[in-house]
TrEMBL record:
It comes from the Bacteria. This is PLP-dependent aminotransferase family protein. InterPro entries: Aminotransferase_I/II_large, Class-I_PLP-dep_aminotransf, PyrdxlP-dep_Trfase, PyrdxlP-dep_Trfase_major, PyrdxlP-dep_Trfase_small. GO terms for biological process: alpha-amino acid metabolic process.
């Protein structure tokens, strides 16, 4: 029972629709999609993304948008453009493993912070080469950053002149409540009207089609000030030359057909039910040894052991013997320290399998505690 990964349920991938779109993309746009694409991305796709993320507060143009080879490349480019060797990153702790991996070659110093208002963000942000945050249902913690903390972060980024990376793969996965404003939008509001000029604030917004359509498309984007986009274009040239023109065209055609919007209600209902099944199973079988909060969205529950000495690396090993896999907190810590917590995914498996997985995990906890 794999409760460790961060994968969507493959049954949600719109295979039929994408097969049809892909065939039309090659037939109708052959030379374009089979040749090299522009480094900055298909102009029509950039326009579409600019329109999608513009709102009453932030005006975006094509100059604000770079198409990337999914979200991971966006994070890689952030490192390439902004990180000096041994420079400082201010980031949530625990932090997304992929981001830790992307920036490891620069051997950065990490300054952890918790977006709960307990610290002065001006101090926390000062001196950082950038701040990294996943405000919607963070990976691994599942945490949703509230509006006040979003505003405080944006204010601190503007005041201290610090780049603020808003990584948002889970912004489309709210199971309850209205989506909270993006840091990008709050930053546009803070900046005020600038005529028809494109956004020039400190937020670097990164997004992806991986969770709303399918990760195999490897389509993502960065939205940022034009000078940041220009620097990233240079870095991308030396990285992969361009994102596949074929998958960019498929993504554009899928967007024009409203594919993600049509899929969304089904995906939300499916994952909401699974989240509820996981939380119920945790209450039924693991409440004596773990605490957790039911996440309002995303893909993960973060469970913290009541006994701070419970080593979840060891739990993972015993769990594997029982036929269940979770991700221990140590992999989300830049120093590899175990915090007596674990990440449990609820999107990949059916409710029945999730319940079975938690029963097996409870056996593993009992075995570990009796050692
Ligand atoms: N950021 C976070 C926080 C993620 O969880 C993920 C996917 N697991 C990504 C970025 C990147 O995903 P992709 O490269 O598939 O867009």
């Amino acid at each position: 029972m794999n409760l460790a990964g961060g994968l969507p349920d493959p049954a949600t991938y719109p295979a039929e629709e994408l097969a049809d779109i892909a065939a039309r993309a090659v037939r109708d746009h052959g030379p374009e999609v089979l040749g090299y694409s522009r480094i900055d991305g298909l102009p029509a796709l950039r326009d579409r993304l600019a329109a999608r993320f513009s709102d009453a507060h932030v005006q975006l143009t094509r100059e604000n948008v770079l198409v990337t080879t999914a979200g991971m490349q966006a994070l890689d480019l952030v490192g390439k453009v902004l990180l000096e060797p041994s420079g400082r990153i201010t980031a949530h702790s625990p932090t997304y493993l992929g981001a830790i991996d992307a920036w490891k070659p620069y051997r950065p110093q990490y300054r952890p912070f918790t977006p709960d208002g307990s610290e002065d963000y001006n101090q926390v942000f000062s001196g950082a080469q950038f701040v990294y945050t996943v405000p919607n249902f963070s990976n691994p913690s599942g945490r949703l950053v509230d509006v006040d903390q979003r505003r405080t972060m944006v204010e601190a980024a503007h005041l201290t002149g610090t780049w603020l990376v808003e990584d948002d793969p889970y912004g489309g996965l709210y199971y309850e409540g209205e989506p909270l404003p993006r840091l990008l939008s709050l930053s546009g509001e803070r900046q005020g009207p600038v005529g028809n000029n494109p956004y020039r604030g400190p937020v670097i917004y990164t997004g992806t089609l991986s969770k709303e359509v399918a990760p195999g498309l490897r389509i993502g984007w960065v939205i940022a000030a034009p000078e940041m986009i220009a620097a990233m274009v240079m870095a991308k040239q030396g990285s992969d030359m361009c994102t596949s023109g074929l998958t960019q065209r498929i993504a554009l055609m899928a967007m024009e057909a409203g594919l993600a919007e049509r899929m969304q209600p089904r995906i939300l209902a499916l994952y909401r039910e699974r989240r509820d099944a996981l939380c119920q199973a945790l209450s039924d079988h693991l409440a004596a040894s773990f605490t957790w909060q039911k996440p309002q969205g995303g893909m993960f529950v973060w469970a913290v052991a009541r006994d701070p000495d419970l080593d979840t690396d060891a739990l993972m090993r015993v769990g594997l013997e029982e036929g269940v896999c979770i991700t221990p907190s140590s992999v989300f810590d830049v120093t590899g320290r175990n915090h007596g917590a674990m990440r449990i995914n609820f999107t990949f498996n059916s409710p029945e399998r999730i319940v079975e997985g938690i029963k097996r995990l409870a056996k593993a906890v009992a075995r570990l505690s009796s050692k």
